[in-house]
Write a structure and sequence with these properties.
By secondary structure, the protein is an alpha/beta fold. It is built from 7 helices and 12 strands. The longest helix is centred in the middle third of the chain and has 14 residues.
Length: 250
Amino acid sequence: MRLRLLILGGSSEASALARRIADELNVAAVLSLAGATTNPAPAPIPRRVGGFGGAEGLAVYLAAERIDAVVDATHPFASRMSANAVAACRATGAPLVVFTRPPWAREDGDRWTEAATMEEAADALGSQPRTVLLTQGRLQLAAFAQAPQHRYIVRAIDRPTEINALPHCKLILARGPFSLADELQLMKRERIEVLVTKNSGGRATRPKIEAARALEIEVVMVRRPPAPEAETLYDLDAVMAWIASHRRAP
Ligand code: NAP
């Protein structure tokens, strides 16, 4: 009997888990994506795309697909999906684990201003016009419409609809990963004075933090939302062991 596993994706952890689980003959895994990006990276396991319809919709899906276990490997800021996973797994009894990365911690040389929300981040930019690099993609750009005095350099995978809300802005369409050399070049070329970023954590997007440190650029760091109320693992081997512990008896 193969374990039927649902992976809630949209992160590098989910992609890494999908690659690893593809070789596991005892596990039938499906990767779920929100459908946020037009051309998501190819996945080595079956994929489903689009919302479930809230916690209730996810509970219906878990029962209909006879899902044995769920790995929430969504991005740390995808708090709605994570809360829905907690509620649906509680309702159906499906075991749930969160696979994520720890937040970044301030290091020597960092010039961070912390903010609780994107609106607070926009406020923290101050009244004097500055050149600001926004790397949160398509989400929550409209928060910066309240600070139209700044020039925004927006980097995203797809053209964000909210970009029209920003009067002075330049869009750079690009998909990571970006190396430290890429980030240094971008920040120098665009004469960036402030970087706004979510505290996503992880290695994949850390070069922008390192580049800001090297160039003594201020960082407005948006804190994470509260963590989901579920067992949390930071390591792929530990997640594989958790999955193995939920295998069905033959
Ligand atoms: P969110 O606010 O937590 O979720 C909004 C809704 O999108 C959810 O209620 C759910 O719809 C649907 N959804 C989210 N993730 C899904 C998934 N993996 N599979 C199926 N449906 C999903 O999430 P978000 O912040 O908009 O992020 C959307 C996706 O982008 C997430 O999968 C996340 O991993 C990824 N992502 C987010 C960020 C970020 O900064 N927020 C960064 C990188 C990647 P229903 O309620 O209808 O089920």
